[in-house]
Amino acid sequence: MQAFNYSSPTSLADAARAAGAPDTRIIAGGQSLLPSMKLGLAAPAALVDLAGIAELRGISRKGDAVVIGAMTTHAAVAASPEVQKAIPALAALAESIGDRQVRNRGTIGGSLANNDPAADYPAAVLALGATITTDRRTIAADDFFKGLYETALKEGEIITSVSFPVPQKAGWQKFKQPASRFSLVGVFVAKGAQGARVAVTGAGPCAFRAQALEQKLSADWSAQACDGVKIDASGLNSDLHGSADYRAALVPVLAGRAVAGS
Questions:
Q1: Is residue 189 a part of any domain in this protein?
Q2: Could you read off the pLDDT of 44-83 as tens digits, one per residue?
Q3: Which end of the chain has fewer CB atoms within 10 angstroms, the N or the C?
Q4: Total-model pTM
């Protein structure tokens, strides 16, 4: 790992100023960026650590939404009474991420900004129709995930919170890679004011909505409605853990299980 400058601001304004410097990366929990730096896959000139900014942490219920600060850890989301009551599937998703160390260091904002193709949170954000708030604007979930490790965030833009509309029903199922506990395929389903929404992670370059399943579940919210739904395998991931066809076949199976548990 090469040398780099490090700053730990205590306010969002100071963090935004520091993040605007050339070749600077923002670090949240560091569960993805630091290993990449150790492997030589990333070599920023400077890091801006958000850990000291208290205003970026916390969970609250605001009307018909649960708002989670960007620096809130996975463990805190999983243990939150507000999340467990309003969106239990989101608490279950947070509890399924990585191991105990990862859950106590990793953050929701860091996960979304990194947009790993097998990360779990993007499926929940997309299925629940969440809104990502940054230090500059708000971004709808449908506009946020752009591709492999690519999001709508601009250079130096900082996620501050995520607002999740409380659904009528929601469910989460994950077929995990046993060593990393990343999603080989993960499916989050939700039924609410936006209708039936189904989001998939682990199967493609980034999380995406499965419209064929959404159409079926809009007419009939039941596990049986997912039976026989075909997911196009073209463009899906294929690796030593599973082919694109295998992943495509898993999606409706997991969707059915998620609906059954909603």
A1: yes
A2: 899 999 999 999 999 999 999 999 999 999 999 999 999 9
A3: N
A4: 0.93
